[in-house]
Design brief:
Four copies of one chain form a homotetramer.
Chain A (H helix, E strand, L loop, with lengths): L9 H28 L6 H8 L3 H7 L3 H23 L6 H18 L1 H10 L6 H12 L8 H20 L7 H12 L4 H9 L13
Chain B binds a DNA duplex (21 and 21 nucleotides) through helix 1 and helix 3.
Chain lengths: 213, 213, 213, 213
DNA sequence: TATGAATGAGAATTCATTCAT
DNA sequence: CATGAATGAATTCTCATTCAT
């Protein structure tokens, strides 16, 4: 994204809005394109065609596919993770936090398969402070007992990625996310009653993001 | 006449041998290239340079990068999985089989980081009948208790892939594979004594494959 | 809004004009290249160099040499044949029409040897409704007496192609076209007086096409 | 064709026969390939595949496609034209000679469509001394009256080429060759009785050449 | 800022030719 | 002589990037 001018006077506001709209169109299109074809295969023309803009317009907003990928990644996951974090603001127990967080995450995936495929394929693991933090708190408090924290982290993230792939393909039943969350907590040897509590907790509302068209 | 046919056969045989050797060189080089750069980024010149053959030679053996990827995948994983299966031929318990199988798999990864990175990045999941079969036997026998078999499968495979990535980067301690195996069995709620047995079992020898140069 | 649309239209129009001009340059160059080297031998670089455009520009306008050949063929012969047809609009007698048409055709060849060689070498026979139509009218009216109309057609077209080749090589005297026309009418056993009339008729003006540079 | 050794002792005879056979196979295959694809489009692999020989074998006999084309041309047309000339040895009248020669030529085309297509597409006009000679004798004797001898020559040869194309496509009735011959003589304003004689003359037997398989 | 034609570097692909067996 | 794998120059084709409007 090219640096926005600091000074925004009245004259430029309209132009900026149009620009923001164009940028949004490109990113939304990119989400779909990356979801279908992965991070490396697409060429600029794919985005240009999907967004319905001219080729030169692309370069008015992004310098390369790489940059577009970053922008799309950030724009796409930041909102979701922020909203999930917010929704869990008042939960204390790391077991419940981790369980509910995973369930919310997969619920989001069920709502938006394109987003799901995008994250499954593109995610270079970033913005994952949330579950990792809960994992570490849980370990410190002795709620989880695992042979190694890196291994635990890899199992959770790897499992989540595969789950997203399956959900994105539409081959997962509605309960799939809860099953996955339960498995994850089992892997961490969480207390059985806490697991049940995490699964029983009714999911807080997460405000829907602007949907992928 | 007989002499003539023998001569033809001889020429043909020599040609075949040379061809097979060249193909092997290309595939071995491809393993390294795919491991470093993933399945989409490399261009034909990368393989050609890595294998030390002429550009035209590539096309004498493979029609596209895609086809080379398949060939490399098959050639690379088949041997390993076959040898692991063989080495566990006399183990009965699905818990122990799954645990030992995973440990052998990660041990192979530790021995050959290039192979590890290749599988982590490229694996489109194939030739995984082995762990999946053990998982299903264990479920049928009641040795594992999971909320859903697809979820269990995804957790195992996803975790294994992340583990391979870490091992391939050289960022995993020697015990990492065993930790991962233990976590996987925990996730399946295997019996604690069986888990201990699976981890205590000394690993059978796996004949080393021709190493990546 | 109106201004914006006008602006878009303006950009589009300018782009179209530039594109059409480039396409014209390529086709004119292709005429020369095909004329010298035939339909199969030339490579894309030949056209690119002759037209003075970039290699990529070629592909912005044509998908292959084949397509360029079609485009060049159509563009090249359509104009000439249309103008000849127009110039003969008021001639009735099929004998005179055929004779004058052939004479005009060869006159065009004499004026433009490049065009002549192109048509001689490349012509896959198309846009020949004109002489064929006159031939059939003449046969129906009994002005021509031939043992078979396909044979007559082949003789005329084959003879014309050879004539173009010779004219294109610059090895034909100015009267060559008239001689050929006379021979053709003789072959059809046209009435002698009509032949004389066809040859005596002063050729109508044919507006010159944009010349090959 | 590479130069044959002058000295042929007993030891080499077998080898030479085999070589001659191989060369023949290649040429016969080339006839078909050139007939289908013209003189410029085919690549060496086409001949190699059609002849069922190895790639290197091609270079043992021919240095290039160009040379193969010449060899095929010569081998193909020489026999035919020689046999036609021979069959007409005792005909005196140039009109009858030309008429019968053309009829024999087209009869050969009807017998061998592959040969026909080859000659139609590839013929760079050579070995045509026969009809040209008859044409000139006829002109000298006043049997033909044409406005120009080059034009007459072009009409005859061009018509013959188109006729071969049509015959080669299998779209000509059996009488097509006779019709064409008649048209040609009409074009030359031959005497009507001589034309009738040329067409009435029963065609002498022409020994069949080794057929294209 | 949006447009899209033109550009040319680079990647993919073909194919004539060589050469060890 | 026959074979066919290997070669690399020539060719085709793609695509990121520029720029005038």
């Amino acid at each position: 994204m090219k640096a926005a001018r600091a000074k925004v006077d009245h004259r430029t506001r309209v132009g900026r809005q149009r620009s923001a709209r164009t940028e949004g169109r490109i990113i939304e299109a990119a989400l779909r394109v990356f979801a279908e074809r992965g991070p490396d295969a697409p060429v600029i023309d794919d985005f240009v065609r999907a967004a319905g803009v001219a080729r030169g317009t692309f370069y008015n907003h992004f310098e390369s596919v790489e940059e577009l990928l970053h922008a799309t990644s950030a724009w796409t996951t930041r909102h979701v993770l922020e909203r999930i974090a917010q929704a869990m603001d008042d939960i204390e127990s790391p077991t419940v936090r981790l369980g509910v967080g995973l369930r919310l995450f997969f619920a989001q995936a069920q709502r938006d398969p394109v987003w799901s495929r995008f994250v499954a394929r593109v995610w270079k693991v970033g913005g994952l402070e949330l579950p990792v933090h809960d994992l570490e708190v849980g370990l410190r408090l002795g709620h989880f007992r695992v042979p190694g924290r890196d291994a635990a982290r890899d199992l959770l993230l790897g499992g989540a990625r595969e789950a997203l792939r399956r959900i994105g393909e539409g081959q997962a039943p509605p309960s799939f996310g809860d099953q996955m969350a339960e498995l994850c907590l089992q892997a961490l040897r969480a207390d059985q009653r806490r697991i049940v509590a995490a699964l029983a907790q009714s999911l807080p509302d997460v405000p829907e993001r602007t949907r992928t068209r």
